[in-house]
Amino acid sequence: REYQCPHCPRKSNRSNNMKEHILTHDPNRPKNFSCTICPKRFARKHDLKRHHQSHER
Question: Nearest 5°: phi and psi at 32?
Answer without folding.
Answer: -90, -5
